[in-house]
Amino acid sequence: MFEKPYDSNVIFFTRMHWIIFLWPVLALCAALAIVFYAAEIDILQKIGYGLAAVALLWIGMTWMTYYFSSVTIKKNHVIIRTGVVVRQTIDIPLSKIEAIDIRQSLLGSMLSYGMICITGTGGTRRIINFLHHPLTCRRYIEQLLGELNRND
C-alpha cells in the first residue's frame, strides 16, 4: 500500500516538514497554560481542557497528514501522495514533466521546506506545501530528466 523509501528503485523520498506541527503544538501549550494558571477558576479550567482536547485532535490530524503525504522519485516517474480521508496518488512519468516550481519563504529557506509545484503535459498540476527539502527534490528530478534526454 505504501511506497517503501528504501526500495531499490527509489532515488529520493521525502515527506512534509515538521513545521506543520508548530501551530497545533503551540495551541496545546496555550490550552495547558490556561489549565495550569486558571486552577482556581473552574469555568476557565474547563475551557482549557476543552481547548487541549481540540489541540490534541489537531495534532493527530496533522500527524496523519504528515504520515500519508509523500513525494517519491523513481528512475522513470514521480509519485505524489496526499490526503487522509480522500487519498490522491498522482504518478507522473518523467517524460511528461514540463516544469518544477519552488517557492520558499525566508523561514522555509532557513529550515529547508517550501512549496513545490510539478506541472505535467496536458496541464496536470500538483502542488505540495511544506515539503521537506524541495530544492533537493527538484535537483533529482532535473538530473533524471537530463539523463532521460541524453538517452533519447
UniProtKB/TrEMBL annotation:
Sorted UniProt keywords: Membrane, Transmembrane, Transmembrane helix
Database matches in InterPro entries: YdbS-like_PH (IPR005182)
Transmembrane feature ranges: 16-37, 49-68
Domain called YdbS-like PH: residue spans: 66-134
Protein name: Transmembrane protein
Origin species: Legionella bozemanae (Fluoribacter bozemanae)
